[in-house]
Design brief:
This protein is an all-alpha fold and 214 residues long. The protein contains six helices and no strands. Helix 2 packs parallel to helix 4, helix 4 runs antiparallel to helix 5 and helix 5 packs antiparallel against helix 6. The relative contact order is 0.15.
């Protein structure tokens, strides 16, 4: 069953239970999707208020809103994918290994599951960074009443990046240094870009809120 078919209360209960899923990666995707939702809400409200005032959002902001919808849908899918990936890994550990053929099949299944366990959270982090990229430049154009929601969305996305990359970190432990190097480089690049973009967006939102108070 998809995580998205559960009530919020059931999802929280499952997260806090002894069960391993939803875990860090899937909750990162959930958080990221809600962060994107806040960004989209801010743009949608701004568009509606502009239309009531006889104005229109710039074509670029309308395009940004559409792209954010695509990112949100991807994060929703990645949340479920992360759960499936963990189950696949657990299933692989339970495969028989009594013969050479079984041992080889088990090793192959574990390798494939391990690769998925690294690529899925990397993709979650990448989608969150992309959402932060899309949101830059919107603060000055969103309605004053929803500037804080842009900042809140950025904060959730920054946390989601960190959470997803911690899931990457623990799955990199199984690799040799040579195998780890390219994945570590991508992981570090996503962390750096995600933090920088989130920090800029948060500062923009805080500055805009302060200016609106003057």
């Amino acid at each position: 069953m998809s995580l998205w078919n559960q009530t919020a209360a059931d999802l929280l209960k499952a997260t806090a239970s002894h069960k391993p899923t939803p875990g860090g990666g899937s909750v990162a995707a959930l958080s990221g999707a809600f962060g994107v939702g806040l960004l989209s809400m801010a743009l949608t409200i701004s568009r509606n208020k502009a239309q009531k005032a006889g104005k229109e959002l710039s074509p670029e902001l309308s395009a940004t809103l559409k792209r954010l919808g695509t990112i949100q849908a991807r994060l929703q899918a990645l949340a479920d994918e992360d759960v499936a990936v963990f189950r696949k890994f657990v299933d692989a550990t339970k495969l028989p290994k009594d013969s050479e053929e079984e041992e080889q099949a088990r090793a192959q299944a574990l390798a494939e599951a391990g690769e998925a366990a690294r690529s899925t959270p990397l993709n979650i982090a990448a989608q969150c960074v992309q959402a932060l990229t899309e949101a830059e430049g919107t603060v000055g154009e969103v309605h004053a009443e929803v500037v804080s929601d842009v900042g809140a969305g950025a904060a959730l996305l920054r946390g989601a990046v960190d959470a997803a990359l911690l899931t990457v970190d623990i799955n990199l432990l199984r690799l040799s240094d040579d195998e780890k190097a390219p994945l570590q480089a991508r992981r570090d690049a996503l962390a750096s870009e995600g933090h920088e973009r989130a920090e800029r967006l948060l500062k923009q939102a805080q500055r805009q809120i302060a200016e609106n108070q003057e």
